[in-house]
Amino acid sequence: MVFSNSEKRLKIFFSISLLCLFVQFFVYVNRTKFYPAVVMPMFGYGKFDMQNIPTTEPLVVVHFNNRDTLTYSHHDLLGDMPKPIRATSTHWILENERPELAHDSLFIKWLRQKTYMLSGRSDITSIDFYKVEKRYGFSDSINIAETKRTRVQHITL
Amino acid sequence: MDRFSAWLGEYQLSPEQLALVRIATSASFLLFAGMYHFEWMGEFPPVFFHAYPSFAFFFHRFPPVLVLHLFNFSIPLFAVMLLAGYKTKLASYGFAISFIICYSFAWAFGQINSTILVPLFTFLMAPTGWGDKYSIDAYLDKGLKKNSNNSTFWVNYSAMFIAFAYFTSGFIKIAGGWLSVSSQATYGYLVTNYYVTHRTAILAPFLIHFHSKLFWEAGDYFTAIAEVSPLLTLLYPRYFRLSLFCIATFHILVFLGLNISFGYYPLLLTVFIVDWKRSVIVRRTVNFFDKNVASFFRPGNWYCFVLIYVIYMVVFYARGFSGWLNGYPDEVSISLFITYGLMSIFFIEYITLNGFLFATGKQKEKTL
């Protein structure tokens, strides 16, 4: 066997490496909720009840000068959002509870452009960010029910 | 011989076989991975920057656009160097480290993905001597450099890392209650992907109306068990290969149902599925490379690799990084099916040579 001389050392090397991976996983990642960009690639999530699936989605309401509003659902927001902005989409902002990022000029700029293209209006006065809790039911047919709507951020422009 | 020694011997690849792995890895990256580009991060203000413990953790903002463009140029350069086998060790480390650095910044937005396995594999393969054959290095060193088989334990080491990566995914699923029969997580994933993320292609429209609890619960069990099994079977090559084949099948099902393509993974997993000692396909491929491909790396042809790099960069920059075809996910999906097909061929060959779950009498004799 080619390895015979160094086999013991290899065994120790492999064991210590595996131990380090486990320590990182259980202590570091699991407790701190940090996902280091070193060796943690994939994560699973919890279970869903097939009859009653809860989900949280973002919703953005744009207010105009004359009190008209325009509402963007999660689909509207993700649809043609450029990837860099998508990476920091409202969904992410809400999930990570960092609504201060909504102030970012790139996102607001994109929202202004989209609003202008959809409505031809550029007189946005303020923007509300909501966290909408929904339930998808699948007993006989698909039904979606909004269960709670929470405003997480209000921006005056 | 104890199990650990036998396991080390299982992936004792020859320099020619290691070179095949190198060429397959770099070629598939250049052909199918699309171009990983990072310049877009440079336009974001520091308020977006929230680095997790990683390289980016030592900074407080995204790198300037110019620096990110340099990475755009360097990663494909290292990939072409790997393909050519030119300064292979440097190229392997350069590719992996550039990749990890860039992604540590990309993940500072808060979204972590599973791209790490590609550079990790390249990093761990660097010391194996996978550039000693079918390479420019082989010509430069004039055959003086010989690969010592001692360094092939890095292949086993990569297997351990990949198995552990899947284990983390499966373990969290089990801890999160995926094995409880009262709810169906796989179906939950499908629903959120279909209605929230709007991934509605291929089999998704059919599956969303398929309400069999038994079917979806079986999906939960298959997913969770498949993901933890590579680590549990690591030292048992036969079962390890079976578990990796299940994982690759899982990736295909995820693509068909959830429209998420992990295009690069079956190729990585194939490295650990091939029976490197007895595979007829590998032997014939090595013969073919010896006769027809090895000479391609001679000095007169080196300009071809420069040309590949230039064409790659021009095409990707000119097409706005959208790739050879329609960009992601098209190319990644093609890659997924090609590599899954390749893996299936090697898996079938393995069970033909070694039996499926248990070795038959004849096969035991052959092995002995």
Key terms:
heterodimer; A: 157 residues; alpha+beta; four-stranded antiparallel β-sheet; 5 helices; elongated; B: 2 domains; 0% strand
Explained architecture:
Chain A has 2 domains: 1-44; 52-156, no CATH class. Chain A has 5 helices and 4 strands. The longest helix of chain A is centred in the first third of the chain and has 26 residues, at 7-32. Chain A has helices at 7-32, 74-79, 83-86, 90-95, 105-119; strands at 52-64, 69-72, 124-137, 143-156. With 157 residues, chain A is α+β, with helices and mostly antiparallel strands. Chain B has 368 residues and is mostly helical. Chain B contains 16 helices and no strands. In chain B, helix 3 packs antiparallel against helix 4 (88-106) and helix 10 (213-232) crosses helix 11. In chain B, 46% of the residues are buried. The chains are: A alpha+beta (157), B mainly alpha (368).
Low-confidence stretches of chain B: none
Write down the Rg of chain B.
22 Å
Order of helices and strands of chain B: HHHHHHHHHHHHHHHH
Oligomer: heterodimer
* Classification by helices and strands of chain B: mainly alpha
By DSSP, the count of extended strands of chain A is 4
- The total strand number of chain B stands at 0
Specify the helix fraction band of chain A.
25-40%
Strand content of chain B: under 5%
Radius of gyration of chain A: 23 Å
Following the backbone from N to C, one meets helices and strands of chain A in this order, namely HEEHHHHEE
Number of domains of chain A: 2
User: Overall pLDDT of chain B, averaged?
Assistant: 86
Based on CA inertia axes, which overall geometry of chain B fits?
globular
